[in-house]
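Q: Here's a chain of 345 amino acids. Please give me its 3D structure as tokens.
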Amino acid sequence: MSDLYLSHVRNWIWKSPPAEWVMRNARELLIGTLKQGPIPQHVAFEMDGNRRFAKNHKIETIEGHHLGFEALARVLEICYKCGVKVVTVYAFSIENFNRPKHEVSGLMAMAKVKLEQLVQHGELLDRYGAGIRVLGQRELIPDDVLPYVDRAIEMTKHNKDAVLNICFPYTSRAEMTSAIKATVDEYTTSPRLPNTPFSQSRITQKIRSNRSKKPDLSPPGDTFLENEKSDVDDSMSSTTALDPDSPPLQSSPVKSIKFQNPETITAETINSHTYTAECPPLDIFIRTSGVTRLSDFMLWQCHENTQIFFLKCLWPEFDLWHFVPILLEWQWRQKKLLEKENPRR
């Protein structure tokens, strides 16, 4: 009996109504049990292995990417149902533009289709109140794809309970470069001085304007004093009334512009300019396909408490049964961390 025949029989059994009922209830029971412990607030997925999955199963590369999208839909439901607030996925690297042209075109065409599906059939995101954010270099997105990106963001902007970050097109180096540039701009841009109604420049401008409009009808000896008093009074009338007995206005000295001290720049300063500035710290980083490197994804966000998992399964194969052991290990480590921070006396 061939392996292919056994595979078809196995799939037929698992897709039968009784088997689906058992699996669905087992999933709900398992997720309910996991929710009794601490839940990570931010999980990142490096979805690797779509092409290898397609090659292993002798299907087209684009079909492998389609199956990868179906895996993403499963993962999103699992995460949001468990209580994860932010899911970040690596959808397209800037380096992927170096792939064969036909593959890049296929990926962009698939991006349009999948973004359109998210908009038309967004019941999953609406059910869990998840809004879409696209992180990356917007200027590199093809013009024919941009409307689909904007529509997906616009249609889910009312969802505030959870977030789906789609990194497209993205690299960590580009993100950190952007954050450093924004920090430099913040610390080298001169602060705007407040424009008060009694500013010296405003008074001077008003006086000169009134002088050019009024004829000289006063006695020779009092011309300058009369015009000066009248002009100052007129300049104030457009802003606020002054007591006639109040002392003459004193010209305030020009304040020197003070820039922010660069010594005050910290990691938090740069973090405030990253794409994920509004997201909670990254708790779990998951990469599939057995590759043990980050590949320029979430390098800034991976901190000392981020737990990194490299799985041997390919991304289209990823399911709840792969996620459960990760979540259980994370919960166990959180428990040990709390015991370390609060030792028993």
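Q: Can you summarize the key feature?
A: The radius of gyration is 31 Å.
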